[in-house]
Design brief:
This protein has 382 residues and is of the alpha/beta class. It folds into three domains: 115 residues, 3-Layer(aba) Sandwich (Rossmann fold), CATH 3.40.50.720; 186 residues, Rossmann fold (3-Layer(aba) Sandwich), CATH 3.40.50; 74 residues, Alpha-Beta Plaits (2-Layer Sandwich). It is 32% helix and 21% strand. The protein is built from 13 helices and 16 strands. Strands 8-7-6-9-10-11-12 form a seven-stranded parallel β-sheet, sandwiched between helices. Strands 2-1-3-4-5 form a five-stranded parallel β-sheet, with helices on both faces. A four-stranded antiparallel β-sheet has the order 14-15-13-16, with helices on one face. α10 links the parallel β10 and β11. α3 crosses α6. The longest helix has 21 residues. It is elongated. The two termini are 13 Å apart.
């Protein structure tokens, strides 16, 4: 039996896939795995038996990844599972940034009680909510991952000229990109070329304040900026100054903070990007499938701290799984000392860490030789 702690509500369509060998709940003690959405985990202590943490979503800023790596805990996320939901909200924000729909709705509420006079009041007052169409305008997309690709392609289909940049764009994503989308050579080149800007990158030391005073000064007058990725990507003091001067016409974000709430020409959405039943189901299914495959088969798919590795299981074998700090030669030496018959083996690295899976014939008496290697973080036999 395996115990899985759920720190947030995880859709049952996902947890049911784990099967009868798993017990899930919010009060599980000493779990073998954790399922989480937005709950903060940085102050949590992890027991030695914790094998994996799966984030039902893309961002993992709420998980102490370095600490998990040191303890041999594999951290998973679910890239792409909520991409369509976020894309739809980005498109909503794109329209809201142009047409002053939010302001118009709020103004319309003030007309209640005017009876038959309301239609004339509407005709007289609606001119204050005029806004441009997006067709023929240039949309800049920073980050062409699962979400950025969908946004870029959808905007192109709506008649926008789309430019983008992503230094890490994968081959599969590049092949999915609409041929009409033009790839530029830098973030700054995209930001200075566009009428609308949408950002789809993680928050890292390198991307913090990606949009700052210097780059805003180089952007087109009246640019509209959308941030559905993370708070911290846009320098707020610089943004507020640009909004007051008219350099930036509108800022739409799914990540509000006290500095921008209630500010003119700012639309704050309460983190609704993945808030659809379809998205929640997709994330739960992917997270649970990844945990189950790792616990039962040792396969790693969509980890953010260890390399992806999947090895078909050889019949009649025991599987040894070794998480380590890039010491494959020492592991091979240890296997010789163990006098094992290797039926299959695969090793991959990612940064400072690596993962080795070995299928051996017969029963594994002991893994002490492997566990004693300096640099080996965790060893388990399946």
């Amino acid at each position: 039996m395996y115990n899985v702690l759920t720190l947030n509500k995880i859709a049952a369509v996902g947890t049911e896939r784990l099967g009868s060998a798993y017990t899930c709940g919010g009060d599980i003690q000493n779990p073998d795995a954790v399922l989480v959405r937005s709950a903060a985990m940085h102050d949590m202590e992890f027991a030695d038996n914790l094998l994996a943490i799966a984030r039902a979503g893309a961002g993992t800023n709420n998980i102490p990844k370095d600490k998990c790596s040191e303890q041999g805990i594999v951290v998973f996320n679910t890239p792409g599972a909520n991409a369509n939901a976020v894309k739809e909200l980005v498109l909503t924000g794109l329209f809201l940034s142009s047409r002053k729909v939010v302001e118009g709705i709020e103004w319309a509420k003030t007309l209640k009680g005017n009876g038959d006079a309301m239609p004339k009041m509407v005709e007289k007052g609606k001119g204050q909510f005029v806004g441009p169409e997006i067709k023929g305008k240039t949309l800049g997309v920073i980050g062409l991952g699962a979400i950025g690709i969908l946004v870029a392609n959808s905007a192109a289909a709506l008649g926008m000229d789309v430019v983008g940049f992503d230094p890490f764009i994968s081959v599969p994503n590049a092949l999915k990109l609409d041929p009409a989308v033009k790839l530029l050579k830098s973030n700054e080149e995209v930001m200075t070329a566009c009428d609308y800007l949408t950002i789809h990158v993680p928050l890292t030391p390198e991307t913090k304040d990606l949009v700052d005073a210097d780059v805003i000064a180089k952007m087109k007058d009246g640019v509209r900026i959308l941030n559905y990725s993370r708070d911290g990507l846009v320098n707020i003091p610089a943004l507020l100054d640009a909004l007051k001067s008219g350099k930036v016409a509108k800022y739409v974000t799914d990540f509000g903070n006290d500095q921008i709430l209630g500010e003119e020409n700012v639309i704050v959405i309460p983190h609704l990007g993945a808030s659809t039943p379809e998205s929640e189901d997709n994330c739960a299914i992917m997270a649970c499938d990844q945990i189950k495959d790792y616990i039962e088969n040792g396969n790693i798919v969509n980890s953010v701290n260890f390399p992806a590795l999947s090895l078909p299981r050889a019949a009649g074998t025991a599987r040894i799984c070794v998480l380590h700090k890039n010491v494959p030669e020492l592991i091979q030496d240890a296997l010789v000392k163990m006098n094992t018959t290797i039926a299959g083996m695969l090793s991959k690295s990612r940064g400072d860490y690596a993962y080795t899976v070995i299928d051996v014939a017969g029963h594994v008496e002991s893994t002490d030789v492997l566990s004693s290697i300096d640099g080996v973080v965790r060893v388990r036999v399946i």
